[in-house]
Protein 1
Amino acid sequence: MTRKGYRRCARCERNRAERFFAGKRGRICATCKRKSRSQASHAARVQAVYGLGPGEYDALVAGQQGRCAICDGTRRQRLSVDHDHRSGVVRGLLCRRCNGRLLTAARDDPALLRRAADYLDSHPATRILGREVYVGSAPMKRGYTSPALDKRIAD
Ligand SMILES: [Zn+2]
Ligand SMILES: [Zn+2]
């Protein structure tokens, strides 16, 4: 039983106030309606822009378990369709950060990204100087940099 003035949404199965439903017979809440409309228009857009067929964007999302193919991140934002700008081939779904920043900075070059990974694993400064030199007075935890310090260096 649902409380008086409330109705159970047939899609999200939440009990929501009557005002979220259209009319007396509405079965889907306004939030779910808005979501399915925006999903439908997104599907139409990716089909038109990237040449994906009906249901193929959803198939990619499901095949990637809803995760960015690079960082494995699940974000609230929809995953972007990443494509090779030269050949036009659709490569997969990426989060905005990996698609927009990581690949753009790396100029879509796999060899450059492999060199960047090698660089992060083995620091030339340590190899050349024969010792680990630390920024600041005390060794910081690996991977940690202070925002204040970054700003000082950038200025
Ligand atoms: Zn709902
Ligand atoms: Zn990512």
Protein 2
Amino acid sequence: MTDKVYETMKNIVGKRYASDNFFEFINNTIDAYPYELDLDREKLPYVVVKPQNEEEISEIFKFANKENIPIYPRGSGTGLTGAARSPEKGIILSTSRINFINIDTDYGYFECGPGVTVNSVDMALAKQGFFLPVYPGSKIVASMGGMMAGNTSGHIIDACIGKPADYVLGLKVVLPTGEILETGSKALRKPSGTDLTKFFVGNDALTGVVTRIRMRLVPAMQKSFGIAYFEEAQSVAKAVVRMYREKVPAPLFMEFMDKASTKVGFEHAELPVPPGCSIFFASLGSSKSEASDNAQRLLDVLTKENPIRAEEIKELEEWMKIWTAREIIIASLMQKHNGQFTGPEIVSALPNLVDCIKELENYGEKDPIFENIPVYLFGHIGALTFHPTSILPKDWDNDKKRRLVEAEFEIETEMNLKFGTCGGEWGQFGKRTEFFRQRYGEKGYDLVRQVKKVFDPNNILCRGVLEGL
Ligand SMILES: Cc1cc2nc3c(=O)[nH]c(=O)nc-3n(C[C@H](O)[C@H](O)[C@H](O)COP(=O)(O)OP(=O)(O)OC[C@H]3O[C@@H](n4cnc5c(N)ncnc54)[C@H](O)[C@@H]3O)c2cc1C
């Protein structure tokens, strides 16, 4: 079978873009989450293909349906739930060659291929005075296709500008049966009611492969920045609850780092280490004075919870340094502890935020495996989201590392059921299937299975991911 698959793929995409090279396999079958550290050679793919358009992808799917071979779409492989891995032997379909960006100011939208990085789109838009309403921490590497599959806001606060899906006007998609579908609108009004786009944005790659993304152009807004330092993490949580209760406009970004993360991040960014934990934000406005007013209102609210210090950040350069301290925190921690990072996503409902952060402060006590492992707490607190993060010791064997990661997903499930929901950063299935089943019940899970079957009767696309890893 291996030869047949490889030969067929070569015929479809050309020899150069069908690879059976071992290094390409490894490169395209693991993602950023550090479990299953021993590669199962039996499950390595038949081939990694890099098609250039929908027609080639359609042919690949038609062949896969005939031969009953699963297909796993692949963006940049930065996903953290295992969804970009291939639990069964199959074809890895890389979108890396579909990487165009067209900005159409006449229509008021841009279109891009799924393989282009979030950062490239962001930069291209910024040059023309527009702004991309998507910001995962991995934006320099992560692809627009991966972002569509997760409908992930990343650092952006949903309550400020919504989810990426709110800006998607339409898509081109190859269905798992090989048919090509266009959805949505070229107008600036998104279709209401039954809009097929909804089946593919945030689809966890279960219903089709997105090959063209059309999003509304958003004029860049003005920003004003602020920062506060607190002795207690719980006071930060109280301040955020206050922000929502006192109707202060939610900022675009609002990040939190506990004392230990603040120290590591600020040191690494060559900033003076402040006292306590930190919370910093970027408020938006259509004019500089509106942005500044919004930032001041937010600082006033933070001040009510008795920070050590709360102040406006006047210079963009200073903001960029502080932002960098947060952006590089994972890399800084990995460097400091010389190992691979790992951590879940905990999302709280507003009334539970203080209790949630209190429990997260004792996260390491939830399982004996965390004994002697420092846990750093940071996250998008404006979106009520936290990432308690630890570094896997290099001298642990793979079995022990795997046990810690398993414990994390169990804690994630338990805490998200208790405090809020899974925000779905990185996706809802793969390692999170268990959460989904508990949160939405067997009926909810079964409905997803049935929806998938409608789109993918032979279960070709991402076989095994919905079932859980
Ligand atoms: C350091 C770091 C920071 C991160 N920060 C964030 C963050 O702030 N917020 C956040 O949400 N995530 C974050 N992530 C996780 C990850 O980067 C995002 O989920 C990202 O959107 C995945 O994009 P990708 O191109 O790497 O996708 P991949 O990992 O390649 O794939 C992810 C999923 O998308 C599917 N997929 C890819 N392309 C397509 C397509 N064209 N059509 C259909 N399905 C497709 C894959 O099959 C898979 O199921 C972070 C990861 C790292 C390593």
